[in-house]
Amino acid sequence: MVDIAPLTLAATDLAAIAEPIGRYGVCLSPAPPCNRYSLRAKDRALLETLAGTALPQRIGDTHNGYACLGPDEWYALLPEGITLPQTEGQPVSIVDVSARAVGLLVEGDGAADLIATGCPLDIARMAPGRATRTHYESVEIQLWCLEETRFHLEVWRSFAPWLGQALLANLPD
Amino acid sequence: MSGYRLATGGRIDRTRPLTFTFDGRLYRGLAGDSLASALVASGVTLFGRSFKYHRPRGLLATGVEEPNALVEIDRGPGRVTPNLKAPSLALYEGMVAQSQNRFPSLAFDLGAINNRLGVFFPAGFYNKTFMWPRSAWEKLYEPVIRRLAGLGHSPTTRDPDTYASTYAHCETLVIGGGPAGIESALAAAATGERVILIDEQEELGGGALGEPTRWAWLADATARLGAHPNVRVLPRTTAYGAYHQNFVAAAERLTDHLRPDRASGHREKLWRIRTRDLVLAQGAIERPLVFDGNDIPGVMLSSAARTLALHYGVAIGRAVAVMAVHDSGWHDALAIAAAGVRVRAIVDLRTAIDPALIEAARAAGIECLPGHAVTGVSGRSAVNAIRVAPGGTGPARHLPCDALLMAGGWTPTLHLWSHAKGAMRWDDASGTYLPIPGTDPVRCVGACAGEWDFGSGMSVAALPSLKPAHRQKAFVDFQNDVKASDIALAVQEGFRSIEHIKRYTTTGMATDQGKTSNMNGVRLAAQALGRPIADMGLTTFRPPYTPQTFGALVGVHKDALFQPLRKTAIDAWAEAEGAVFENVAQWRRARYFPHASEDMHAAVDRECRSVRQSVGLFDASTLGKIEVVGPDAAEFLDRMYTNPWKSLVPGRCRYGLLLREDGFILDDGVAARLAPDRFHVTTTTGGAARVLAMMEDYLQTEWSDLDCWLTSTTEQWAVIAVQGPRARDVIALLVEGIDLVPEAFPHMAVRDGRICGVPTRLFRVSFTGELGFEINVPADHGRAVWEAVHAAGQPHGIVPYGTEAMHVLRAEKGYIIVGQDTDGTVTPDDAGMAWAIGRKKPDFVGKRSLARPDLARDRRRQLVGLLTADPATVLEEGAQIVADPGQSIPMKMIGHVTSAYHSAALGRSIALALLEDGRARVGQSVHVPMPHGNVTALVSSPVFHDPSGARLDG
After folding, report:
1. At CB < 8 A and 24+ separation, what contacts does B377-380 make?
2. Strands B403-407 and B299-301, how do they pair?
3. Which of A3, A97, A158 sits opposite B566 (nearest CB)?
4. B694: Cβ–Cβ under 8 A, 6 or more apart, which residues?
5. CB contact at 8 A, B865 and B944
6. Which residues of B touch A162 (CB under 8 A)?
7. Is B324 helix (H, G, I), strand (E, B) or coil?
């Protein structure tokens, strides 16, 4: 007879990281709230006019809280209070996604190694100031390299508990 | 075989004795021993029973190629691992090992009857014999065969261990820590680039561990590797697969070599490595020789005896004979003789042998028998003598011995090379396939590339013998119990391709992957077919190189982290209210909210009544949402959905139906036009990712000229459905800036405004047939707004309802759920939704397919309602429908039930069904035969409640 005991900790019990937590030279903490926008356009100049700022040109570059994620795609991580206009009749798309994702800061000497436990990118070669859409195991994330030892992970809110706990589980015991 | 510990030599620590048990008996070993070396040193000869014939088997090898000595290691509750190779297990104090595939004991095994009956168990036996009667397969043959043939036991409890995994990147990955691998790693390290060296053994060294003269070099080289900060060495790690673009998977064993009470942390770690250059230094595996009795315990690879003597300080026997066709057997014999093992004789089929070898052997007191072959082995659980004959066919001579070493030549370990799609060529000189250096940044070095210093040898399929092949117990594949005669039989039965012969005989299959058997199998097949071996080719090796644990493969995806469980912003409220949940895709959703002792039926009835009579509250946050923005947004939706969108005015909503290219329903949902160039599209919960991916695919590949972009907003919005005649009264207290009167805010409209002080997109939509609103607020505010609505609804007796009530309410109205009432074969017309097709549109996804004769024909299955004759009977979803229950079996099935519930509003059961020519059958009776009797039902319209839709306006 197969006897599978109930889990002491079930998937329903997982919670997102709410307080800084860490060991082995890594600290995970929730990022401060911010305004988030997805910006799309074939013509970058038009978006720059509407957003009132220069946008990074090379895919993976960031500038002033804007990351270039694709040939026609930018993502904005702006301090709370800074908003972008909702456009009409222009060949652009600006969508407020502030509540879609939450941010997780991963800091410390072991930060890159910890992210590499589930992210297939060569993170050691990721320069500060670069950002990209990628994944951690099966969960899509955006990875922003703020400094060599400091990363911001963007994750859709319902995946945040799994992501945080999976990162913790991959730390050495 | 009567092994014993040599007085000197080996890399074991003679000052650190260890105790362990094998099959319950206590043994002693030394630190640095493998389980196999410690058992051989203790005189054990019998390690296991073979897979098919249950023949007694001893140790064949000292590496991962070992096919016989498979054991089960017990490290405590939930930590029993079967099918581990005894030579690969580092001994620790207190190790508990069990042999496998024997009942009741290793020495006396009932299954060994198969051995005597072996003549009845030829290749393809299972396929041939157990076909009839068919019914006996499940109940008799399969369970019996499973019990007899199984290797080890499956676990029956939860695995208490945890597993880590990581990605890693390097410029050079070296697999194999023998001399060639170490040299390659050192050369790459000198460039300053990142180097990873993987080795599966306890310590680096590979073949050098069995050559004491190289130990000083090894210590120095290992130290030099350690001095490079850019080199990572992973011992106890098996690179088990090489995949596209130099992606290698490797499992590192972190704790299994430690005493269970001293082991802590993750048990294994999966390394997923991307490398620019891949260097395969996996070495070579010695080939056994094929002759009668070559599997009797004590017959083993010559290289294994060498490893035992020089690496572990263990003598394989007190009177050892060698059967060689390769110089390496002579070198091994001389080396173990020098280490203190008594070698009686070297038998070699070759007549031309390097005179220096013969001279050295004679000087060491070893009898040399060139031009001879072993033709038989005596002994059951241990060798006691061999028969030797000139040329294998001359007059035989009896030669007592307690171990027989086989030196059949060497096969490069090209498993990962094969995974990486490396090409190979037959090489006559070495009698094996060798890698053809390619242009890819993958290369083989050392013995893996055929560059070895073992000397030369001859190539032989089976040793010559006067005994007919079918009378010989001459094994090719020890793990799968395949004999030389089985391969001959496969050829006789018409198999020609080595891939077919492999599958028919099982040579080289399964976990062993033919490590010791492949080349002998190919040789025998070539001989039987009378074809040159170079024309035979080699079967494909497949990952994993050696068996791996599921734990290592799943890594962190275990137990609570098995997969992400998604919760809405309102989930915690529902949990606190005692909701019962169900999983929908990765989401968990509140299914119903039972009061006190209510069961689901009672709770759902109450929730449904509240919605129909007053007002209910439902968390619809999991619905997929896509914001479609840009001047061409309406054009894009026109092309995607069946419905027309350009005519939809801003501020209004429309139900949209999405087809696949084959014309069948894929998804549905309501979309709102917020502005001329902005739509808020909703999808089903489970279809959200699929629909977005499909839309992106079309937009990027077919219609890149359109100025329109898609943004997933599923998680941006919490969605609170307020449904029921009192819905407007409830939200009116909370909404600002939106005129809620029906004239200003009709059904299927959307307005921007504020609720509870936060911005909202307020939809007037209904999936219940009642007056209804869906409040979209940024997810951060979802919980607060939900609670405010719940509080505001108290005077009206508002109740939260779950997905089950939602299902009943929509079924009462005949609203379909894609994936429940459709199954990928349902067209819009089948579902009664031909009205959703924009007839004037030039095209939309699936339009052409709708004109296919089969999709346009009469008498297709159509969505109808069913009312059972007994109103208390709730049909079973999925049950088949027939016209005449009296017909003989198999009956003609004319449809099936897709949804069935008890309806509180109607006070009876209702069901939706897909029924052949269903709309024409309305008013007729059909039958649903069930195990407990036939259920008769009346075919009806699928709209059971408020067919006029009057209640949508409250």
Report:
1. B377/B291, B377/B292, B377/B293, B377/B294, B377/B296, B377/B299, B377/B404, B378/B293, B379/B296, B379/B297, B379/B298, B380/B56, B380/B296
2. parallel
3. A158
4. B658, B666
5. yes
6. 561, 563-565
7. strand
- Identify the closest residue of chain A to B582 by CA–CA distance: A12
Chain A to chain B Cβ contacts (< 8 Å) = 152
Chain B, window 622-641: residues with a beta carbon less than 8 angstroms from a chain A beta carbon: 627, 629-631
User: With pLDDT > 90 as the criterion, what percentage of chain A qualifies?
Assistant: 88
In SS3 terms, B714-771 reads as CCCEEEEEEECCCHHHHHHCCEECCCCCCCCCCCCEEEEEEECCEEEEEEECCCCCCC
Question: pLDDT band for position A23 (50/70/90)?
Answer: confident
pLDDT of the residue at A173: 62
pLDDT score of B429: 87
- Predicted TM-score (pTM) of the model is 0.92
Interchain proximity B561–A165, CB inside 8 Å: yes
Report H helices in B339-440.
355-363, 415-419
The closest CB to that of B560, out of A10, A42, A120, belongs to A10
Which residues face A22 on adjacent strands?
A27
What is residue B537's predicted lDDT score, i.e. its pLDDT? 86
* Cβ-nearest to A166 among B168, B556, B707: B556
Q: Collect the ranges in chain B with pLDDT lower than 70.
A: 1, 103-104, 110-151
Helix (H), strand (E) at residue B223: helix B215-227
Across chain A, mean pLDDT equals 95
Residue A169 has pLDDT above 60, yes or no: yes
Element (H, E) at B499: helix B498-505
pLDDT at B1: 47
According to DSSP, residue B10 is labeled S
The 10 Å Cβ neighbour count of residue B468 is 8
> Smallest Cβ distance to B711: which of A10, A90, A97?
A97
Rounded distance between C-alpha atoms, residue B71 and residue B99, angstroms: 5
- B230 CB within 8 Å of a chain A CB: no
Asked if residues B133 and A140 have their Cβ atoms less than 8 Å apart, the reply is no
CB–CB contact B711 A93 (8 Å): yes
Residues with Cβ within 8 Å of B443's Cβ and at least 6 positions away in sequence, in order, are B277, B278, B279, B280, B437, B449
Mean pLDDT, range A89-103, rounded to an integer: 97
Does residue B780 belong to the interface with chain A, where contact is any CB pair within 8 Å? yes
Q: How far apart are CA B179 and CA B221, in angstroms?
A: 9
| Cα dihedral B844/B849/B851/B853 (nearest 10) | -170
Residue keyed to tokens 């001879």 = B372
